[in-house]
């Protein structure tokens, strides 16, 4: 997507010609393995779980646990989980396919909506872990003449383990640059009316397409250890706010559209209520029809397609539940693209009005 068109800056003889005048928009997401085999999975998990923003416990304790236990035991079974959701056509994970498509569609929206300013904007995408690497795509944008870059972390709710680490990685790359592009970072959008309306519209549409009416709906967000929030991470408050606004937009009480947290890792206590325990408790209490929506994920991924769509479906059915639906994320749907393009347009203001 990076265009070759650059704007050379005038330069006296004997000095380099600089390229500038363009604006880059870099969509950022978490990252994903390159393949599902043991070594690819190990490489991905090693990078991910070596991040101090993700695992905050002392390195003295974590290093042996990671290298001797986690990276020995986890790559195999997790690779098999990824196998069940893998995009076989493109031979990549769904997170990559969707993030690329979001960037391509955003470029088209900018192109079609604003023909005069569009040639000045280059849209690209990168992953915090794995590829395309943030450092490499920043370089591509700079080489394309982008002297101003908007970073767009695709996390509606801020967490140090996601948003901050993506920014850290971008600023780490900037540390090595003599001529740094000017950087803006788009804020978390957990209460943005465009996001809430998109979630509500997508949930309404998905519910209308089901052949059953759920008795309960879970709004399941990725968890973090409770200690991270106690130390000052606003993540839980952001999730609560999204949940409250979604309940209002849907006209549903919070005990009908319930807030839960998924994807626990390790032995520490994570944010509660846990999604899996809630699913089991609801099934055991006689609930027969359940739907789960995952508003914290901008794109479907392992955590939604496999953990919710397969694992939690299994828990529900094994414990007496009968009908289950995993509601798709906003992804690159028209509503999903409304959210991303709305944020990008707003955050570019002052640089360029599109
Ligand atoms: C162990 C600590 C982890 C924290 C803290 C954490 C926070 C966090 N993660 C996401 C979004 C995603 N996580 C994904 C996968 C995933 N997450 C962890 C661990 C933590 N996440 C691991 C080890 C994995 C890999 C799979 C596994 O081994 O279980 C994904 C999916 C990526 C994909 O390829 O599909 C996403 C997305 C958020 C939003 C978040 C904190 C708010
Ligand atoms: Fe995660
Ligand atoms: Fe998971």
From TrEMBL:
<dbReference type="GO" id="GO:0004325">
    <property type="term" value="F:ferrochelatase activity"/>
</dbReference>
<dbReference type="GO" id="GO:0046872">
    <property type="term" value="F:metal ion binding"/>
</dbReference>
<keyword id="KW-0963">Cytoplasm</keyword>
<feature type="binding site">
    <location>
        <position position="303"/>
    </location>
    <ligand>
        <name>Fe(2+)</name>
    </ligand>
</feature>
<keyword id="KW-0456">Lyase</keyword>
<feature type="binding site">
    <location>
        <position position="222"/>
    </location>
    <ligand>
        <name>Fe(2+)</name>
    </ligand>
</feature>
<dbReference type="Pfam" id="PF00762">
    <property type="entry name" value="Ferrochelatase"/>
</dbReference>
<dbReference type="GO" id="GO:0006783">
    <property type="term" value="P:heme biosynthetic process"/>
</dbReference>
<dbReference type="InterPro" id="IPR033659">
    <property type="entry name" value="Ferrochelatase_N"/>
</dbReference>
<keyword id="KW-0627">Porphyrin biosynthesis</keyword>
<protein>
    <recommendedName>
        <fullName>Ferrochelatase</fullName>
        <ecNumber>4.98.1.1</ecNumber>
    </recommendedName>
</protein>
<dbReference type="InterPro" id="IPR001015">
    <property type="entry name" value="Ferrochelatase"/>
</dbReference>
<comment type="pathway">
    <text>Porphyrin-containing compound metabolism; protoheme biosynthesis; protoheme from protoporphyrin-IX: step 1/1.</text>
</comment>
<keyword id="KW-0408">Iron</keyword>
<comment type="similarity">
    <text>Belongs to the ferrochelatase family.</text>
</comment>
<dbReference type="InterPro" id="IPR033644">
    <property type="entry name" value="Ferrochelatase_C"/>
</dbReference>
<dbReference type="InterPro" id="IPR019772">
    <property type="entry name" value="Ferrochelatase_AS"/>
</dbReference>
<comment type="function">
    <text>Catalyzes the ferrous insertion into protoporphyrin IX.</text>
</comment>
<keyword id="KW-0350">Heme biosynthesis</keyword>
<keyword id="KW-0479">Metal-binding</keyword>
<dbReference type="GO" id="GO:0005737">
    <property type="term" value="C:cytoplasm"/>
</dbReference>
């Amino acid at each position: 997507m990076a265009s070759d068109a650059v704007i050379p800056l005038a330069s006296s003889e004997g000095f380099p010609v600089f390229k500038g005048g363009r604006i880059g928009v870099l969509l950022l997401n978490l990252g994903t393995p390159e393949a599902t085999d043991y070594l690819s999975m190990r490489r991905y998990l090693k990078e991910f779980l070596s991040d101090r923003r993700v695992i905050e416990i002392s390195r003295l304790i974590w290093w042996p646990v990671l290298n001797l236990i986690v990276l020995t035991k986890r790559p195999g079974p997790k690779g098999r989980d990824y196998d069940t959701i893998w995009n076989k056509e493109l031979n990549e994970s769904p997170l990559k396919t969707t993030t690329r498509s979001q960037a391509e569609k955003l470029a088209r929206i900018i192109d079609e909506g604003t023909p005069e300013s569009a040639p000045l904007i280059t849209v690209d995408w990168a992953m915090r872990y794995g590829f395309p690497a943030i450092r490499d795509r920043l370089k591509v944008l700079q080489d394309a003449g982008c002297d101003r870059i908007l970073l767009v972390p695709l996390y509606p709710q801020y967490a140090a383990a996601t948003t901050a680490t993506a920014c850290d990685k971008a600023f780490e790359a900037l540390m090595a640059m003599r001529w740094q592009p000017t950087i803006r970072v788009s804020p978390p959008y957990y209460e943005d009316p465009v996001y809430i309306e998109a979630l509500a519209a997508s949930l309404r549409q998905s519910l209308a397409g089901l052949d059953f009416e759920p008795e309960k709906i879970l709004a399941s967000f990725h968890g973090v250890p409770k200690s991270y929030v106690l130390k000052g991470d606003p993540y839980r408050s952001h999730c609560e706010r999204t949940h409250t606004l979604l309940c209002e937009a849907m006209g549903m009480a919070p005990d009908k559209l319930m807030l839960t947290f998924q994807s626990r890792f390790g032995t520490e206590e994570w944010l509660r209520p846990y999604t899996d325990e809630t699913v089991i408790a609801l099934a055991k209490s006689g609930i027969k029809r359940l739907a789960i929506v995952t508003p914290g994920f901008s794109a479907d991924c392992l955590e939604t397609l496999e953990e919710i769509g397969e694992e939690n479906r299994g828990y529900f059915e094994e414990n007496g539940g009968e009908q289950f639906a995993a509601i798709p994320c906003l992804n690159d749907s028209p509503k999903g693209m409304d959210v991303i393009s709305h944020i990008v347009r707003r955050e570019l203001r002052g640089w360029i009005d599109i």
